[in-house]
């Protein structure tokens, strides 16, 4: 798979998100989605309605991660580090990220953030995910990856991946990301810098999923920091 990482960086800088098409083949998507039934692979299960998060459920994978998930985490991280460090510099945040994911995870674990955060999500008819941010502790990598494992129009209808962006003294801007099966969306976790007339300022982003009208929707989330 060839990725124009310069274009990815430009999209992230301009919009807070970027889409990479066909990161996974259909067979890989189906194999990853099928892991949801294997409880021994997960550390916890969250039923969204119990917590006011929406409707549907998700499970956090346990260590050791499935090989495909581990490879994706390791492959994306070094490509995103230059963007993450550039964003932190622009936003006046002193923290910088090391070049390898292994080094960053060691930092998380030393601070007590030792629970893995990659997850699989499952939605049925009527399910949705409220707008939220995946933070989990003091150490937060500012970008994450969402992979759609089902095919819109065939496996489900509705269920659009959505984001909102809140700029100071302005109303929220809605964003809909048109993903197909196997596509990856790289998104801002929390803040991103925007260049203003007086220099860069921070905008706040959240993401979620609109109501699924029919069928079943499966997603994988690759979060680079671990949880406390």
TrEMBL record:
Top-level division of the source organism's lineage: Bacteria
Report the Pfam families cross-referenced here: Oxygenase-NA
- List the InterPro entries hit by this protein, alphabetically: DUF2086
Protein name according to UniProt = 2OG-Fe(II) oxygenase
């Amino acid at each position: 798979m060839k990725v124009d990482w310069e274009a990815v960086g430009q999209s992230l800088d301009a919009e807070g998100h970027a889409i990479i098409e066909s990161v996974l083949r259909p067979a890989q998507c189906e194999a990853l989605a099928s892991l949801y039934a294997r409880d021994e692979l997960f550390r916890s299960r969250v039923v969204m309605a119990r917590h006011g998060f929406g409707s549907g459920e998700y499970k956090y994978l346990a260590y050791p991660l499935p090989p495909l998930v581990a490879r994706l985490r390791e492959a994306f991280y070094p490509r995103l580090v230059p963007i993450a460090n550039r964003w932190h510099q622009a936003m006046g945040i002193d923290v910088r990220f090391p070049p390898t994911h292994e080094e960053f995870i060691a930092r998380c674990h030393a601070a007590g953030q030792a629970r893995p955060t990659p997850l699989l999500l499952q939605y049925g008819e009527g399910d949705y995910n409220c707008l939220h941010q995946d933070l989990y502790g003091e150490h937060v990598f500012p970008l994450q990856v969402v992979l759609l494992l089902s095919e819109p129009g065939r496996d489900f209808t509705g269920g659009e991946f959505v984001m909102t962006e809140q700029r100071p003294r302005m109303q929220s801007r809605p964003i809909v990301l048109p993903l197909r099966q196997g596509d990856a969306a790289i998104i801002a976790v929390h803040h991103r810098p925007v260049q203003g007339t007086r220099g860069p300022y921070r905008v706040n982003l959240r993401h979620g999923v609109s109501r699924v009208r029919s069928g079943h929707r499966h997603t994988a989330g690759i979060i680079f920091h671990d949880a406390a």
